Amino acid sequence: MLSCTNLSVFIEEKKIISNLSLAIPPGSVHTIMGPNGSGKSTLAHTIAGNTLYRITSGDILFREKSITQLPPHQRARLGIFVSFQQPPTIPGLKVFSLLKEAYRALHPNDDIETEQFQKQVEECLALLRMDRSFLYRSCNEGFSGGERKRFELLQLLVLKPKFIILDEIDSGLDVDALKLVARVVNMLRAQDDQRSFLIITHYQRIFAHLNPDAVHVLCDGRIVDSGDASLLHQVDQKGYDAYQQSSP
Fold it and tell me: Rounded mean pLDDT of 210-237?
């Protein structure tokens, strides 16, 4: 589905990611864990195509085709979705309008009527326990932290992207909200067994409700360990300091 090969990334003159390789097959849930400043969010921004993050070597492939030179909107149209920690505020652009236009861009062959689309969106709102009035608010303007997270989940449910990156979506969430995130991920997996996820996190709490297929530990811009879900327990026991001390 998506792979990074020997990827090195700079922000201005500072190297953040060094010679990183990662392969996420269709239908899988991978997680990247690591301490603050290890390069986790940089990887998400780089895959999304943020031009502030400069690739100096390596390549990113999506469905076996390079996307390294593609702008962000073209990557999104291919089905790549990134949920960021600090999504932008867009005054004047209503939530429903954003969802409708984004859906049309992602699914150009679906001639769904506006009324039917709105019905589908409202069903997603009900699942997330959100009021219908949310659709007519400006995107992220005045949203609480919890509302921002639910808006990200709403986009996932409505847009149905193929490859989903959740960048610390579990940060600051209570147990019920964590369960809701896991429920949405599991629901989307059930809808399409080719859909893949990359969950970026600093903590392990979400994995009480979600089973990853693979776990990667990122320290100082390098993947220093990879394994199955049992690696979560090892990280919990050892902490990140042990990995930082052993990384080159």
Answer: 91
What is the pLDDT at residue 72? Answer: 94
pTM beyond cutoff 0.85? yes
Which residues have C-beta within 8 Å of that of residue 126, sequence separation ≥ 6? none
Place 245 in a pLDDT band, splitting at 50, 70 and 90.
low
Q: In sequence order, what are the residues at sequence separation of 6 or more whose Cβ sits closer than 8 angstroms to the Cβ of residue 164?
A: 81, 83, 156, 188, 195, 196, 197, 198
The span from the CA of 197 to the CA of 206, in Å, is 14
- Spatial CA neighbour of 42 closest among 61, 55, 29, 25: 55
Domain annotation covers residue 137? no
Cα distance between residue 177 and residue 153, in whole Å: 11
Q: Where are the alpha helices (DSSP H) in the chain?
A: 40-48, 72-78, 95-106, 114-127, 145-159, 175-191, 230-238, 241-246
CA angle 31–203–200, rounded 5-degree value: 30
Give the total number of structural domains in the chain. Answer: 1
Please give the average per-residue pLDDT across 173-196, as a whole number. Answer: 90
In this predicted structure, what is the pLDDT of residue 169? Answer: 82
Torsion of CA 217, 51, 103, 1, to 10 degrees: -40
| Structural domain range at position 229 | 2-90+161-246
